[in-house]
């Protein structure tokens, strides 16, 4: 254990009234199905529990890490020394005609369903992206030229002292697959989005279906143990943005594998677990791909998938 945390489960039970899971196999918490064991894991079923868990971990200097659906994260083969907090908070409210306030543990699918039922449009581009609102804000998830950050009005986050604060959209400094949370590691608790009131529910439904169909054509099925696009789309020295998959395809990525990690034949920017991959296999394969692209095109690919080391830095 990273520090003397023998009493931590007892303190947790006293303070939060819930048991921690101990010595947890992390494979079931990442879509990659890779990872060793975490000392502790807690499934927070409300924002109150999430806040209390973070505060207690901070108080006892227990390293902690908040996850959502685990669709963009690769755990270390050595697991995690500390507490993993899985966010399962599911509250969602229609706060004004065009605004929805949503707990960060709500999945994008649940959020879209809620919006569709109330004829609120604008977020259809999220259809088919797996994961939670919190994870999506962290990485400014998006598709078809749109991203979630553009629709965010404000959010409640936990600041570095463990206090709840409300921040506006500009706080997040959203960019392509970027938010300030990548630097601060602050947890998002709730988020409010601005939507468009549509006359016709069918219009929203049709756009969702079209987006799902477009994704089915180019993306692997959700059942594939992977975490989506492995690399961000880079900008070439000429200033032109290009799909990472195009460069990867040209360096023969689809024929590469390391141990149990391989590149998906249908899309060169997806690394997946063929069954017994380790995190080391995935990282080595990614590094090989980066080397080839750098050598051929002079472009340094940047990871979109997040690797969580066993010992937090
Ligand atoms: C088949 C497939 C297709 C995909 N397609 C797309 C796509 O089209 N576009 C796209 O953008 N992504 C895509 N992804 C990646 C993934 O769906 C997104 O990154 C998603 O936002 C991850 O959400 P999550 O809840 O699973 O986050 P996790 O994987 O659980 O966590 C990712 C990061 O978010 C942080 N985080 C999670 N919750 C919070 C919170 N409450 N507060 C602060 N930080 C938090 C974690 O600490 C971690 O660093 C795809 C993935 C798969 C498997």
Structure, briefly:
It is built from 8 helices and 18 strands. It is α+β, with helices and mostly antiparallel strands.
What can you tell me about this protein's structure?
- The chain is of the alpha+beta class.
- It has three domains: 80 residues, Uridine Diphospho-n-acetylenolpyruvylglucosamine Reductase, domain 2, CATH 3.30.43; 127 residues, 2-Layer Sandwich (Uridine Diphospho-n-acetylenolpyruvylglucosamine Reductase, domain 3); 93 residues, Uridine Diphospho-n-acetylenolpyruvylglucosamine Reductase, domain 1 (Alpha-Beta Complex), CATH 3.90.78.
- The protein has eight helices and 18 strands.
- A five-stranded antiparallel sheet has the order 6-7-13-11-12. The chain has a four-stranded mixed sheet with strand order 1-2-5-3, with helices on one face.
- It starts with 7 loop residues before the first helix and ends in a 5-residue tail after the last strand.
- The chain binds flavin-adenine dinucleotide.
- Flavin-adenine dinucleotide binds next to strand 3, helix 4 and strand 9.
- Flavin-adenine dinucleotide (FAD) binds next to strand 3, helix 4 and strand 9.
């Amino acid at each position: 254990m990273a520090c003397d945390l023998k009493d931590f489960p007892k303190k947790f039970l006293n303070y939060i009234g819930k048991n921690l899971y101990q010595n947890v196999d992390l494979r079931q918490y990442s879509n990659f199905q890779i990872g060793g064991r975490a000392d502790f894991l807690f499934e927070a079923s409300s924002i109150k529990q999430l806040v209390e868990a973070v505060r207690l971990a901070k108080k006892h200097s227990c390293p902690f890490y908040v996850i959502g659906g685990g669709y963009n994260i690769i755990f270390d083969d050595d697991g995690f020394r500390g507490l993993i907090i899985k966010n399962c908070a599911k509250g969602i409210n229609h706060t004004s005609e065009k605004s929805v306030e949503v707990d960060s543990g709500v999945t994008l699918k649940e959020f879209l369903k809620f919006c569709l039922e109330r004829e609120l449009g604008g977020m259809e581009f999220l259809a088919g992206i797996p994961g939670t609102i919190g994870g999506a804000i962290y990485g400014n998830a998006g598709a078809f030229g749109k991203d979630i950050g553009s629709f965010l009005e404000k959010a409640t986050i936990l600041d570095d002292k463990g206090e709840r604060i409300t921040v506006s959209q500009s706080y997040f400094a959203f960019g392509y697959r970027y938010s300030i949370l990548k630097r601060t590691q602050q947890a998002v608790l709730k988020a409010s989005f601005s939507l468009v009131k549509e006359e016709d529910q069918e219009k929203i439904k049709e756009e969702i279906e079209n987006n799902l169909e477009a994704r089915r054509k180019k993306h692997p099925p959700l059942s594939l143990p992977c975490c989506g696009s492995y690399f961000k789309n880079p900008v070439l020295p000429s200033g032109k943005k290009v799909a990472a998959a195009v460069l990867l395809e040209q360096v023969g990525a689809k024929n590469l594998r390391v141990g149990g990690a391989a590149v998906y034949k249908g899309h060169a920017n997806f690394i997946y677990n063929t069954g017994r991959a380790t995190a080391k296999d995935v990282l080595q394969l990614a590094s090989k791909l980066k080397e080839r692209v750098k050598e051929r095109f002079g472009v340094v690919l940047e990871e979109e998938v997040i690797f969580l080391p066993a010992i937090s830095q």
